[in-house]
Amino acid sequence: MIMKRLTTLLAGLSFFLLSLPGIAAEEVKQEYQGLTLNARLQLAAGHSLQDGVVLLVHGTLAHNGMEIITTLQDLLAENGRNSLAINLSLALDDRHGFYDCTVPHRHRHTDALDEIAAWLAWLKRQGVGDVVLMGHSRGGNQTAWFVAERDDPLIRKLILIAPQTWSRDYAAESYQARFGVPLAPVLETARARVAAGQGGELMGPIGFIYCKDARATPAAVLSYYSDDPRMDTPYLLPRIDKPVLVFAGSEDQVVKGLDKRLAPLAEQGVIRLVVLEGADHGFRDLYADELVEAAVAFIGKP
Question: H or E segment at 249?
């Protein structure tokens, strides 16, 4: 009982300190479905959560300490914007750093939607003013999917940075190229095991996302590789009833041709599209400055 009260007091003190002007970024945590989720909260000098926050979601098997995320948080703070960069759990407790490929994969692509909802609920409990969702790469698809299907009155705008595109043919081709085996038999095995009630049991070794000789649940395999149009962010964008800004890098070799895919939607006024000439998937250095400058202008006043 004493330890529980001490933990509660420390958590309250931590949030109080974060609410003071000029305090540097700090880690915050919450309990969620038997796991501890963590995130990096950075308040701009002289600001509190009542002034609103940008909620950032990282990319595939990544984390909130990677270069693009920390750079965005620092630049947002310099421009008077608070931010909360979450670490998706990927079904691991209090996860930090890039996902270790030796760890079995039990996470699903759509788990991120539930965790975005959990962090929105946390922000509401802290009295946040409003939220702008910002996602990079796969995180861009997951934030777009969330707004398209779940939304929340707290969310004011959506910013996507090189969001994931997807097609069944490209998924099969890239799987074959990366792992040297066809994807179809892997999917067939996963479907059969799910149908047999074994969706939570591990299969493998198989190729899975970036990991060779991985072990993953059939449910995880189907989540990341099944033919679902919602995995393709351009499919989701017309279904979003909020202002959307999308950044594309002309030299992006991860999400290729995004600017051409999105040009018709931009012409129709469905989204605002900013193409940064010379930027790759990481939007490093001056590209990050350009990105945040455009993002802050898009966010506008709370």
Answer: strand 244-249
